[in-house]
Amino acid sequence: MPFGLKVDKPILLGSAFIVIILAVGTAYTLTTQGTATFLSPTYLLQQLHFGAFLGVTAAGMMMVILLGHIDLSVPWTLAASAMLATAIGGLLGDVTCIGVGLAVGLFNGIGVAFLRVPSMIFTLGVNTVLLGLMVMLTGGHAPQSAATDLMLFLGRDRSFGFLPHSVVVWAAVSAVLVFMLTRTPLGRYMYAIGNKEAAAYLSGVRTRMVIVAAFVMCSLCAAIAGLALAGYSARAYQAMGDQYLLPSIAAVVLGGTNILGGRGRYSGTVVGVILIVLLQSVLSVMQMEEGWRQVIYGAVIIVMLLVYGRGQRVES
Amino acid sequence: MKTIRLYLSQNAGLLLAIGMFAVIYLTYVSMHPHYGMNVVTQNINETLALIFVSMAQTVPVLVGGLDLSVGPLMTLVNCFGSVVMAGTGGSIALGIIAALALGAAGGFFNGCIVVYGRIQPIIATLATGAIYIGLALFLRPTPGGNVNGDFSWAFTNDINELGLTYGWFDDAGIFGVIPIQFIILLLIIVVVWIPFRRSTLGRGCYAIGSAEGAAYMSGVRVNRSKLAAFTLGGFFAGCAGVYLTMQMGSGNADAPQAAEYTLRSIAAVVIGGTSLFGGTGGVIGTIFGAMVLRSISFIFRVVPEDSAFGFVASPLLQPLFEGIILLLAVSLGAARVFRVRNRLSLFT
Amino acid sequence: MPVDASAPVAVNEDAGAFLQMRGINKSYGGVHALSDVDFGCRLGSIHAVLGENGAGKSTLIKIIAGVVQPDTGEMELDGQPRRFTNPLEANAAGVVCIFQELSLMPDLSVADNIGITDPPRTRLGLIDERAQRRRAEELLARVGCDDIDPRERVRNLPLSRRQMVEIAKALGRKPRLLILDEATSALTSSDVEKVYAILRQLRDEGLALLYISHRMHEIEALADTCSVFRNGRHIETFAKGAHTDEEIVQLLIGRDLQNVYPPKPVRTEPPKPVLEVRNLTWPPVLKDISFTVGRGEIVGLGGLDGQGQRELLLALFGVLRGVSGNILVEGTPARIGSPAGAKSSRLRIALIPEDRKTEGLMLPMGVGENISMAALPMLTRGLVIDRSAEAEKIREAVARMRIKVDDLEAPVATLSGGNQQKVVIAKWLLTGARILLLNDPTRGIDVGTKQELYQLLRELADADTSILFYTTDYDELIGSCDRVLIVYDGEIVRELEGDDLTETNIVSSSLNLPVEQAAKAASA
User: In the predicted model, is pLDDT for residue C285 greater than 70?
Assistant: First the structure.
């Protein structure tokens, strides 16, 4: 892959940080409980199981960020697709969930690519509209219906006694996206547009289609994450997507993807997700107050970015 | 004549925002069953915090960045304020100054990370926002604090009330009915924003937002202006926090509310005519943008239930309509796409 | 080589120099931009700096202006050793530079731009807008542009006016050493004359002027002294008249030059039309344009700047909306709705755009990826990119265009200007285009690469590609084109070919004068 060695640094650093976090957590549990919880396979699998939802969300977010855009409608795309699916129930519900993801992605894509509304503000509006739609449909209460069979299968179940299906879903999504990014023209076009949309356009790239495709991928990932998450919790609930927005952006950026677009490897995003999931979990096991957790969360992001996420000094 | 034409073309965004506000608010006024100055006071009471937070968002946007920590910083100052503004008399004044200083310090911290750390503002402020919420939670794990009730009342109503509360005067005539909030806002604009706008630091911000490389080559002190921009943004967020404390009388480390304020501030900035790419716009437009946002929700309250549009008044539908109108408002700029005849200009 | 023995020969080390640089070295990565350079210039002279792209001129200027710092070496200004760490320090010492990329902020007013560094202030320390506006008016009048309103946003001014504002701004800094880096490239010819007059006046007032340009006739018109740079080294400095044009070109590229342009084919019959344009209109710029480009022809677009030539090319490439008229490709009517459509196998039209850095290349991406970007749909097997086919095509293109690059995965930003332009052209060669549109492709390109380009165009034409070539250089029009269409005010006013294709005819048609009148005017 081009872009030289610079991008490998975040992955190296991210992995180093993961090791540090595990070490700190292990030291804590060893001294307070005498156990090395963080190194137990059960624990790590549990983290992966839960982290897969963020993994899928971040995967989709990366597609959009690669183009230099952002999708702030992920929280309520995730929630709305899950809530509608549980309300309808059965296989039709599952199809609805994916359908919602598709529809929102298309709508976002049209707004950004064809109407040229800045993605930050358009997706913000879409997020609000989806929120309003759900409030209207549910009357402001939590939805009562339970998760569908497929949701339970994807989000809660495990095979062979240990392999969470959510991780399989994450792996499948990752495989598709990596293949697309590295082996297909679409992937090349995405990097090109993220670097210089005008030049890509003048090279005969159908830039609008590529942008729509990226937003569709992002919303589909949000819907898939919603599908699985509802299975994990056995039901859909209000604001279930809110906690996935900022962490997914952070995971993508910590993984080395440039927030302005055009640069980034998918493996970095995976490392970023694992980093954040472990960080959040260690902080909660250490029974840190919410306040400390937030402060450390923010500080870790800043420190990591200071080490490798720096931009150019302004020079001619 | 030419001066007027120039002014019109260069301030189109601001004028559009003012126009939007006029239309929406006047519609609200016409539909209100018993409109009066007390309604105005109520309205501005609910809006001032959002106005300040949106002002806080405007300045970093002018230099081409985005500040996702404005809501959290406001919350932090609110919680801090609920601690230091809980006394009486002179200590309240000191408390206010300390709280405003905290806001500015938070902004300065943001600026340092962006300028010296060379980290993109959007992700830097995402991280600092988390830190500010965390600190707010330290100060107020549960909502609390006891800001002096008189003080709170005096400064969130009109001038007459201020006089009455402290026994200074009973009736200030025609000036008596002006809500204090307008005075506060006007004061901040005149004493802080306008001098900044006309200083070299302030103009440097516009220069950087317009063309950072060119600004550097022209000798603009890029670092200083960026630091100033973020610090000023933090100061305005501090104003929002202080006002929230006065309004609520307590401190509440409400993270979802902080996020909501942040996102609304971005919408207000866009509606107010400031470009998200930087270089054009300003705080005045944003103020009208924030007022447009609030006025929309006001209208929903006064639609008569039994009228043709009565269903709109249903609280269940309000978030949906607010969202749709927000989407429409920000997509207005998209009309440009249909008029553009050289597609290449869409990418620059 | 005949040398004018009576003309003073300037040397590298000059006792009367205002600016003196010694032993300057600067490298970027592994590339030596400047190697052991000694350079000096005096007050009261216009000193031209010549060199191909990559010769080091821009780096030299940036060091003098404080934008970058040299790795080694020293600089003296007026006998005092100086080192500038930023442009502001250089300005304070009286060194002002007008760069090729303008240093104007588009969203600020003209007055704000001119007064950006040191505006007049009120008692309170704030900017005094009225005084600033008056100062801007004075400076604008000095450059002969009092029609520009200082309150106007720079964004709303055309490029040539912006460059004049840039010059006014530089004068406002009260320079002792004024550097112009390709500062006249976008100016209209009347503005160019104004600038020449100002520069001569400044020289007479005792300023030192450094002037970088690719245009020989400009150097001839203005310069008292010339310095030639090549491959990062200062080759020679000589006085005006010491060398002929051919000698200068030789110094520039270091090799002997036989022909500048490849020979044109002699046609026995008119070529088969490949691109037919009928009544092409795009109000208000293009008005009822009709012409034909035949198979294997190189047709030039000439005329003054801004008469619609750029828009014509964009219209043929599908970038403009609201174009009416008919376009036929190989006799079949074509609807060109976008560059993607233009590039399609049905049409196979290619455009080399105006600005390679923002329109032709994705600078951070690799050389290879840039080259294959347009032809990617043809290099796939199913959904996947055929890596080996792609690599082979890229290698072929690099070899054919003689692109100087070590690592195909290195960002294309690391290449020199001429090589970058070659990458842009290579990108379109891969698509097998049958109609090639070129939008001023040799602007800012060194002489050596230009040569290769003319050769390439003729080779392509001989291989049945139809070429439409817009250039502002009369020499190129005459030397490389079979026919030239002169555009004036959005219409084609004249078609020149064969013996009619002369500079006089081009110039007169560009001004929309009938040819006979021009001859009369020339002899009067």
Answer: yes
The closest of A213, A156, A166, A165 to A56, measured between CA atoms, is A166
Q: Do domains C14-94+175-188+200-257 and C273-348+433-523 have the same CATH topology?
A: yes
- Segment 427-456 of chain C within 8 Å of chain A by CB: 427, 431
Contact list, A71 vs chain B (CB under 8 Å):
none
Q: Tens digit of pLDDT for each residue in B311-330? A: 666 777 777 877 787 788 77
Chain B residues in contact with C150 by the CB 8 A cut-off are none
String of DSSP letters for B153-176? HHTTSBHHHHHHHHTS-S--GGGG
Domain membership flag for residue A215: yes
Contact A298 B128 (CB under 8 A): yes
Say yes or no: domain C273-348+433-523 is CATH 3.30.590.20: no
CA angle C48, C106, B222 (to 5 degrees): 85
Domain ranges, ordered by start, for chain B: 44-302, 304-333
Distance in angstroms (rounded) separating the CA atoms of residues C229 and C5: 23
C-alpha B244/C-alpha B250 separation (Å) is 8
- Asked if C359 lies within 8 A of A198 by C-beta distance, the reply is yes
Q: Is residue A311 part of a domain?
A: no
- Name which of B6, B217, B344 is nearest C87 (Cβ-Cβ): B217
- Output the CA–CA distances (angstroms, integers) from residue A167 to A97, A127, A282, B88, in the order listed: 19, 27, 20, 58
Beta bridge partners, C467, equal C298, C436
- Whether B119 and A122 lie within 8 Å, measured CB to CB: no
Could you tell me if the ipTM is greater than 0.90? no
C385 CB neighbours in chain A (<8 A) are 183-185, 188
Per-residue DSSP letters for B226-271?
A: HHHHHHHHHHHHHHHHHHHHHHHSSB---HHHHHHHHHHHHHHHHH
Nearest to A91 by CA among A156, A157, A149: A149
Yes or no, beta carbons of A188 and C369 under 8 Å apart: yes
Chains in touch with C (3+ beta-carbon pairs under 8 Å) read: A, B
- Give the number of beta-carbon pairs within 8 Å between B and C: 87
Quote the number of domains for chain A: 1
Classify the phi-psi angles of B94: left when phi > 0, otherwise alpha if psi is within -120 to 50, otherwise beta. Answer: alpha
C105 vs B200: CB contact, 8 Å cut-off?
no
Task: Cis check for the bond before C333: say yes or no (omega within 30 of 0).
Answer: no
User: Are the Cβ atoms of B199 and C126 closer than 8 angstroms?
Assistant: yes
Q: What is the pLDDT along chain A (316 residues), one digit of tens a residue?
A: 444 444 477 788 888 888 888 888 888 888 887 777 777 888 888 888 999 999 999 999 999 999 999 999 999 999 999 999 988 888 898 999 999 999 999 999 999 999 888 888 889 889 989 988 988 888 767 666 788 888 888 888 888 878 889 999 999 999 999 999 999 999 999 999 999 999 999 999 999 999 999 999 999 999 999 999 999 988 888 888 888 988 999 899 888 898 888 999 999 999 999 999 998 888 888 777 888 888 988 898 898 888 776 654 443 3
Locate the chain B residue with the closest alpha carbon to C155: B210
Rounded CA gap, B168 and B157, in Å? 15
**Would you list the domain boundaries of chain C?**
14-94+175-188+200-257, 106-174, 273-348+433-523, 360-431
**Residue B43 sits at the chain A interface (C-beta within 8 Å):** no
- A238-267 residues touching C, CB cutoff 8 A: 262-263
Q: Would residue A315 count as lying in a domain?
A: no
Judging by beta carbons within 10 Å of its beta carbon (0-12, 13-18, 19+), is residue A294 exposed, middle or buried? buried
- Rounded to an integer, what distance in angstroms lies between the CA atom of residue C180 and that of residue C219? 12
C14-94+175-188+200-257 CATH, one of 3.40.50.300, 2.60.40.1930, 3.30.830.10, 3.30.565.10? 3.40.50.300
